[in-house]
């Protein structure tokens, strides 16, 4: 991976200019190399952050015009999409409030507010969580179809919404998980979501950027010892040591969690670069995603098997539970 890409990513993520050394490296980049950087950002769904990075370059800095115009166009499209999704989310919350329901926005939509420019964050589906006692009424109220993974799926104004009765992507014994809505719950949700995809089809940089900005915003409200204990009880302590090492090394997170226990983040970097956004660019994955449901499931299962050396090292308990659930056709 081109070190300049991560320098630009950090610039856009934290809204700060490049260092003098990084600026010198960017000054000798040609048009083909800029095009390659744009393609990496597209595959990792962080084009909005690359756009923000170029706004921090000196006024006399020369970038090929097509590159600038292309990123401006992408940024405009992202802003329009996010505006539309925000309107649908507001509409759903109004509808739910009238029915006495209390949804919680999960994952991407919930973490977008931690970005300086949330309108430039690539957004996928809208994920809504309902407490188990409300979930049956929510299904009646909102309708929709059941997806292959058991999630209820609806569409509003052309936008996909997934409805969940489960907040964390974890298969834990009966332990006391943090309450939904707390800072600890947000970090555990984002971390476990990245883990689920890292041990399976793959994961990209956008999800890592999400947890980086969330931690930066919430760290002062979190007791590090309590967060580490949550990771220990959920069997994800080793995984989170790897994840936070990656966030510090490549995304420039000024973090205190695991500050004295950093490990090499190369194993996670390899997964991110191999597959990009949710592993969509991994070998054979592109073809599988365009095939029928059976072939997609076979490919997903083969990806889990392919990742076993990594998975069993960093999250053995979660890996076994997830693969067993996948085998039974109940992967969440």
SSE ordering: HHHHHEHEHEEEHHHHHHHHH
Tell me the β content: 5-15%
* Uncertain spans: none
Shape: globular
How much helix is in the residues? 55-70%
Biggest sheet, spatial arrangement of strands: 1-2-5-4-3
Number of strands: 5
What number is the mean pLDDT?
A: 90
Using the CA coordinates, give the radius of gyration.
20 Å
> What's the tally of helices?
16
Structural class, judged by helices and strands?
alpha+beta
Oligomer: single chain
The N- and C-terminal alpha carbons lie at a distance of 32 Å
Main sheet, how many strands, which sense, barrel? 5 strands, mixed
Supply database-style keywords.
five-stranded mixed beta sheet; 5 strands; 6% strand; alpha+beta; 332 residues
Report on this structure.
It is built from 16 helices and five strands. The protein has 332 residues and is of the alpha+beta class. Among the domains are: 3-63, no CATH class; 176-332, no CATH class. It has a five-stranded mixed sheet. The longest helix has 34 residues, at 65-98. It is globular, with a radius of gyration of 20 Å.
Q: What order do the helices and strands come in, and which of them pair?
A:
Blueprint: H1 3-14, H2 20-27, H3 31-43, H4 47-55, H5 65-98, E1 104-106, H6 107-111, E2 126-129, H7 135-142, E3 145-146, E4 152-156, E5 159-164, H8 183-198, H9 205-218, H10 224-233, H11 237-251, H12 266-275, H13 285-289, H14 293-306, H15 308-314, H16 316-327
Parallel strand pairs: 2-5
Antiparallel strand pairs: 1-2, 3-4, 4-5
Helix pairs in contact: 1-4, 4-5, 8-9, 15-16
């Amino acid at each position: 991976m081109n070190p300049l890409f991560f320098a630009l990513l950090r610039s856009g993520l934290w809204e700060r200019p490049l260092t003098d050394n990084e600026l010198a490296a960017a000054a000798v980049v040609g048009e083909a190399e800029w095009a390659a950087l744009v393609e990496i950002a597209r595959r990792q769904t962080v084009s909005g952050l690359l756009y923000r990075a170029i706004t921090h370059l000196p006024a006399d800095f020369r970038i090929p015009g097509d590159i600038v115009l292309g990123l401006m166009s992408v940024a405009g499209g992202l802003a329009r999409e996010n505006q539309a999704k925000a309107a649908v989310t507001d509409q759903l919350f109004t509808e739910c409030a009238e029915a006495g329901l209390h949804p919680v926005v999960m994952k991407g939509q919930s973490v977008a507010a931690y970005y300086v420019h949330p309108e430039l964050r690539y957004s996928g589906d809208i994920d809504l969580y309902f407490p188990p006692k409300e979930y049956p009424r929510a299904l009646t109220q909102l309708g929709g179809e059941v997806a292959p993974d058991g999630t209820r799926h609806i569409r509003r104004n052309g936008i996909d919404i997934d409805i969940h009765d489960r907040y964390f992507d974890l298969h834990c014994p009966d332990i006391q998980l943090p309450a939904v809505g707390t800072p600890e719950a947000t970090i555990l949700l984002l971390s476990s979501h990245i883990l689920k995809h890292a041990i399976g089809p793959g994961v990209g940089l956008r999800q890592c950027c999400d947890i980086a900005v969330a931690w930066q915003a919430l760290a002062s409200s979190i007791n590090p010892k309590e967060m580490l204990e949550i990771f220990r009880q959920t069997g994800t302590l080793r995984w989170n040591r790897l994840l936070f090492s990656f966030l510090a090394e490549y995304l420039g997170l000024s973090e205190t969690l695991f500050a004295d226990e950093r490990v090499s983040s190369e194993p996670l970097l390899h997964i991110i670069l191999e597959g990009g956004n949710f592993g969509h660019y991994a070998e054979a994955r592109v073809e599988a995603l365009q095939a029928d449901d059976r072939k997609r499931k076979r490919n997903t299962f083969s990806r889990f098997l392919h990742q076993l050396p990594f998975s069993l090292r960093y999250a053995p308990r979660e890996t076994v539970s997830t693969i067993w659930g996948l085998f039974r056709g109940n992967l969440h």
